[in-house]
Amino acid sequence: MGILEKLHRFPPRYGPEWGSGGIFGLRYHNETLYFTLAFEGEAHFITNDSHDVYEFQLVGPRPTSGGDTYNAVEVVDEFIYFGGWVHAPAKFRGKESGQATIDFSNKYSHVHEYDTLTGRVRLVWKESIHHPEKWCGEVSEILYNPYTDELLLAREDGHENLGVYSLDRRRGGIRRLSDKPSPKGTQVHDVAFFGVGKNYTQGLREIHALDMVSEKWDAFGLGESLDGERYLAPHLGAMASINNRAFAFVRGGIFVGNPYNGEEFKFVRLFDFYTFYAPFRVNALPFGGGVLIGFNSHHDAYYKPRSEEEMIYHKFTNTIVGPSVLVYITPPSVRIVGVFGARITSLEQVKDKILVATSNTPNTGALDATPFDTGQRGIVVLSQDEILRTSPPVRFSVPLGPVFEAGGDTFGGIPLEGYREPRLILKASKENKLRVYEYDLALPLENADYDEFEIRRGRNVIDLSSFSGIVSFKVKEEDKSGKAIIELR
Strand 150-155 to strand 206-211: parallel, antiparallel, or no bridges (unpaired)? Predict the structure, then answer.
């Protein structure tokens, strides 16, 4: 395909922001592949015989930076709608005093329209509060409401104008439907579910549902975990719809349910290591009647901690327990189908191929801004056959200290499907007991069963081949110097 031949790697280039942005919003529509390259602030449109780049000059003067870092994209008829945020122009300052940052005076939230028939880009809407240290809510999700012929926008990352909005895609008028900060949403039947909460501090707190016809709201709480143990810091990364249920992918697992269908939301622990390993800054891709999603090992991080509090977050965000994994969810099955480096940033299907956008560098913050993106970004092309049949070897090395320090005692949520010799190696500093929970994604969800094992001081090897589905682990007594190694092969 001519489109795939035009894909290449993007090394660090000018784009003032923090760390690395990535390739976001991958969408193939009407024989056009769109994506935004952040932090350069470039929207790319590729066909078999062309490759056009738009630099957000309709928002403001160049040099621009940013674009999108949450995969805010939707298609309607012949149009691709892409949103996010952009500095126009970008203003980098403070490097000389050791406090490198961005002036947010020119930071805009935006939605654009690309006509795949004419190749024309149109600015539908933009907004800024023109403050040097604060910004209005970024657009992190776009859903189409077929009843009103409007675009639903989720906005949580920012200081003002947060919540869920409805945007007239033809005339650009915007209406606020909710003032509750929301980073992500998904449509189930005639309802749009939105995750609610301040993502970087609290994480997901509730799930709100908008009737797309009447525009009335309902609010739903978050239920218990299948293994009966507590969950911690459920930062919301993406949402999707499978089998008439809403799936909210968070740090540590998934909330699954649909109260309109008689099923309250429950927590399914998945890749919970009490680090910032999470399905964050990546989209959930509908595929084969299920969903592909990435769980990322290093998407956001503190670079130079400057206080005791920042040291805590530095450890939380920079502890790398395993590679990023691409996961295929087809209830009741959850299966690892790909292993990648620091980050998977965007996913899309192009005919018989799956495109996986990646970056080797996290998004950073605080006073460590740079005038250029610091990551190596690229797009990996996989065949559908690889996704449907492979479960590659993978290894997780999990220090137990962070789990106990956070007030937890349960970790894991490891899908075993496709592996013949899975095992847990537990390095313990004292005698202990280990509980292994077993569960799956059969719907409606059922609580986990478990087995218990005696743990000796030293190296313990637990054969997991007699378990199926997903397994999580609970250590009975605190062991902050302990370590768990999970090998899947």
Answer: unpaired
Does the pTM exceed 0.90?
yes
- The domain 2-389 is placed in CATH, from the list 2.40.50.140, 3.30.470.20, 2.130.10.10, 1.10.340.30, at 2.130.10.10
Largest CA distance in the chain: 69
Average pLDDT per consecutive 10 residues, the chain (489 residues; last block may be shorter) = 90 96 98 98 97 98 97 98 98 87 97 98 98 97 98 98 98 97 98 94 95 98 97 96 98 98 98 97 97 98 93 95 98 98 98 97 93 97 90 97 91 97 97 98 98 98 98 96 97
DSSP state of 487: E
| Count of all residues that appear for the chain in the document | 489
Q: Which of 11, 5, 141, 160 is nearest to 82 (CA)?
A: 141
Handedness of CA 335, 338, 343, 346 (dihedral sign): negative
Spatial neighbors of 22 by CB under 8 A, at least 6 apart, are 38, 69, 281, 343, 345, 346, 357, 358, 359, 363, 375, 377
Distance CA 245, CA 265 (A): 9
Query: Cα dihedral sign for 412, 343, 280, 146?
Result: negative
Quote the radius of gyration of the chain (alpha carbons, Å).
22
Q: What is the DSSP string of 294-359?
A: EEBSSSB--SS--SHHHHHHHHHHH---S-EEEEEEETTEEEEEEEESSEEEEEEEETTEEEEEEE
Other beta carbons within 10 angstroms of residue 459's beta carbon come to: 11
Spatial separation of the C-alpha atoms in residues 166 and 178, rounded to whole Å: 10
Q: How far apart are CA 47 and CA 55, in angstroms?
A: 18
Domain range summary for the chain, segments of one domain joined by +:
2-389, 394-488
Q: Calculate the CA 168 to chain-centre distance.
A: 27
Is 394-488 a CATH 2.60.120 domain? yes
DSSP bridge partners of 248: 239, 255
Residue 53: is it exposed, middle or buried by C-beta count within 10 angstroms (0-12/13-18/19+)? exposed
460 exposure class (CB count in 10 Å sphere: 0-12, 13-18, 19+): middle
β-pair type (14-17, 22-29):
unpaired
For residue 89, count CB atoms less than 10 angstroms from its CB and return exposed for 0-12, middle for 13-18, buried for 19 or more.
middle
What six digits make up the tokens of 114?
């690309």
